[in-house]
Amino acid sequence: MGFIANIQVLRAVAALAVVVFHARNLTPIGSWVSFDFGNAGVDIFFVMSGFIIAHVTNRSTPLTVRSFLVRRAVRVVPLYWLLTLCVFTGGLIAPGLAGTGGVPVFADLIRSLAFVPYWNQAGAMLPVLFMGWTLNYEVFFYFAFALALPIRRGRLRLLAISLVLVALVLAGRLWHPASAPLVTYTDPLLMEFVAGMWLSQLYAAMPPRANPRPVLLSAVVALATGFAVILFKDDLWPHAPRILAWGAPAVLIVGTALALDRLGLKLSSQPLMLLGDASYSLYLTHPLVIKAVTLVYRRLDIASSGVHLVMMLAACALCIIVAVLVHLFIERPLMNALRRLLLPQPAPSKKLPLATLSR
After folding, report:
1. Is residue 122 part of a domain?
2. How far apart are CA 196 and CA 250, in angstroms?
3. Quick check: is 352 in a domain?
4. How many CA atoms lie within 13 A of 111 on its CB side?
5. In sequence order, what DSSP letters do the residues of 219-271 get, joined into one string?
6. What is each CA distance from 172 to 42, 74, 135, 160, 169, in whole angstroms?
7. Which of 12, 157, 217, 301 could lock 275 by a disulfide, CB 3.0 to 4.6 Å apart?
8. Percent of the chain with pLDDT over 90
9. CA of 57: how far to CAs of 27, 54, 153, 161, 208, in Å?
10. What's the number of domains the chain is made of?
């Protein structure tokens, strides 16, 4: 299934939005201006995840349940486990750095590594590496999707998964579970994965075509509208549930990006492609970078709003640099090693040039 440059760019945009949301706490600027729109980066990620999983499994050679889960584990687990262990160890060595969740105990570590949601000491449903709360949703979605893989017909498979997830969400609205796993597995956020899956069907049915200006202009306007709704959510519908306030525009944004791809308008600059590749590293590492910068910056006792703004932007830039380095020298080598170890390697063909085989 082909590489989609616009989705790669959206991965970078979504991760940067989350970084900005958390960087707001570095300076007093966060109390002057609302950065809540950055939260919507998670919703965009969920919609993209639903699309990507359905898209890559819609192939002539179907994946087995084991192969699918191993591929997902290789992509998600190594860096998350490594950083979780680092944060757990750091919390034991320097309890003052543990944050509002308190010093993690061994049971917290096990549940975090196993992607099992739980309530921490502060009463929040956050794992040791707090950004991992979204991975609890992702992993649950992966298992739900894997169970439906034996259904060979793509649309029937998506329908089965959709019905199960919709039923879970409805059950949650009726029974209001209190346990962390059940709260997660019945959350309306699961509908964002469902929407993303069905976007894969629309994308597959949309033939590539030359970019007729009226259609192209409409797609660009739709994309801008999606981002505007997210940006001005507090003014437009401050009390709307998240699934509407950020989930609906996230679906519009991802869907429009896919339509623009079909119309031939693709963003494919190398820096954006690299940042898209490093988006998972950026998502997981940025809280650690911001925490380190905050500890240093607050000791300086600076009052200038201009310096605050510069420092916030500098912290975001540092998060990007660290993420790219982590991706290139830790995440990618780990994934490549695990792929060679756990996944069957295709036999090289004598008809292919060496350059092709090395990719």
Report:
1. yes
2. 10
3. no
4. 18
5. HHHHHHHHHHHHHTHHHH-TTS-HIIIIIHHHHHHHHHHHHHHHTT-----HH
6. 21, 31, 20, 19, 5
7. 12
8. 68
9. 44, 5, 11, 14, 20
10. 1
